[in-house]
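Action item from last meeting closed. Structure (273 res):
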């Protein structure tokens, strides 16, 4: 076993994960030597992959598709935000060998939105989609104190169920796309429609002046949603910064230091082009 602390990202597939590059960037910037691997686990045996990793001295890991629920089951303890998100994206081994599960996706999004000086407090926020990605970010978004948060989804029941789940935290409402009312300061696309090159059916008048359109997906070219928002003249940002943000929050849990995300994000952006 080497003295260099060992971390990893688990997924299936995993070959194209950007996490090793991001964490190497943090390690270099902070002068904190760690090893960070990409690990492929069998779809039905995340636990086996994790145990092998821990026996090699692994201290913590990021967890991505399709293991976020399996990681929550495996953890001995869950943070409040992992419980709230219903998923784990960060694991760490505690002092007594216990496995702690956390979720940094929401905090990562918030870190990026703050970097962008996005409208949050007293803002009207619209979130498109009601899947796992949305569940992880509603708590942190509501904690910023928006005047209203609307969750709109193709399957209306999923949006209303999420709104009910988070009702105690602030003004939140769930609806279908056709029932979206009013205009917004921040619109976040968390549907996977962009993957299929599709756009949710959105009202033509959606944005307030100075609004920000944010897509949780990222790529070399803007998503269909961001292209649509660009045509409406608003500021558009993709989810690459959220990816770096959630990694920075995981790094903080493991190493206790806060990397500067900007240079790492810039290097990643340059590689995407
Ligand atoms: P994730 O974990 O990334 O959120 P998910 O749980 O599969 O993935 O959720 C995908 C989200 O994208 C859902 O909100 C889904 O809408 P439904 O709940 O109605 O399935 C949404 N979605 C996927 N394809 C879509 C499309 N073509 N148009 C609109 N919404 C779409």
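Sequence:
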């Amino acid at each position: 076993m080497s003295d260099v602390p060992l971390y990893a990202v688990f997924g299936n597939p995993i070959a194209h994960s950007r996490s090793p590059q991001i964490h190497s960037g943090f390690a270099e910037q902070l002068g904190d030597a760690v090893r960070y691997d990409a690990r492929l686990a069998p779809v039905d045996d995340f636990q086996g992959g994790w145990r092998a990793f821990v026996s090699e001295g692994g201290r913590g890991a990021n967890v991505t598709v399709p293991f976020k629920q399996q990681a929550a089951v495996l953890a001995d303890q869950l943070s409040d935000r992992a419980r709230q998100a219903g998923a784990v994206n960060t694991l760490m081994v505690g002092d007594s060998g216990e496995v702690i599960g956390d979720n940094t996706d929401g905090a990562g999004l918030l870190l990026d939105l703050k970097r962008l000086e996005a409208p949050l407090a007293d803002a009207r926020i619209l979130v498109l989609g009601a899947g796992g990605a949305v569940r992880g970010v509603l708590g942190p978004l509501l904690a910023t104190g928006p005047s209203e948060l609307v969750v709109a989804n193709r399957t209306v029941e999923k949006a209303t169920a999420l709104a009910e789940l988070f009702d105690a935290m602030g003004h939140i409402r769930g609806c279908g796309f056709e029932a979206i009312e009013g205009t917004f300061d921040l619109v976040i696309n968390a549907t996977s429609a962009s993957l299929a090159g599709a756009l949710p059916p959105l009202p033509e008048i959606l944005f307030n002046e100075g609004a920000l359109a944010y897509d949780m997906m990222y790529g070399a070219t803007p998503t269909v949603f961001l292209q649509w928002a660009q045509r409406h003249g608003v500021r558009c940002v993709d989810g690459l910064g959220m990816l770096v943000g959630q990694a920075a929050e995981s790094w903080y849990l493991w190493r206790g230091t806060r990397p500067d995300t900007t240079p790492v994000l810039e290097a990643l952006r340059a590689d995407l082009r």
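Note appended to the action item: Residues 6-103+245-272 form a domain with the Rossmann fold fold (CATH 3.40.50.10860).
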